[in-house]
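Title: Request for sanity check on Putative tricarboxylic transport membrane protein prediction

Description:
We are preparing a figure and want to confirm that the structure record we downloaded matches what your pipeline produces today. Could someone re-run it with the sequence below and paste the raw structure tokens into this thread? We only need the token string, no images.
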Amino acid sequence: MKWFKIGMPVFLILLGLFSLIMAINLPKAHLGNPNGPLYFPIGISVLLLIFSAIYLFQEIKDAEEINEHIADLFSGRTPKLIISTIILGALYALIFEPFGFLISTVLFLGALLFVVNGPKRWKANIIVTLSFSLITWYAFGELLGVSLP
């Protein structure tokens, strides 16, 4: 079983315990029910603890199946898509300032769609790239008045 699959529910259980302790230590109300301010945070903390414990037991039970899915993630075409997206995202960040929003977004989104969909769907890639970029540019730049580089 991988440590990162049970790490999140354990973290959430610790967070639930911490928030429960902090909620119990909240000051009492001076008017009305003195415990009134405690009910909601204690209830949320208890629910967080219950759901995190359920989550932890499910992760422990499904650990073998999850490990197979993680192994499948790094086979086939997926690693190429992940690496390509990271590289294209870094290039997008580098060209955004000098070329501006519209040109850099068209280049980034077009390249990304050609990586994901392939060159066989070039018409759809170009239509989606241009329409998304132009609509986004118009909505932010003209309708909302946001200054885009």
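Thanks, this matches our download. The first helix runs from residue 3 to 24.
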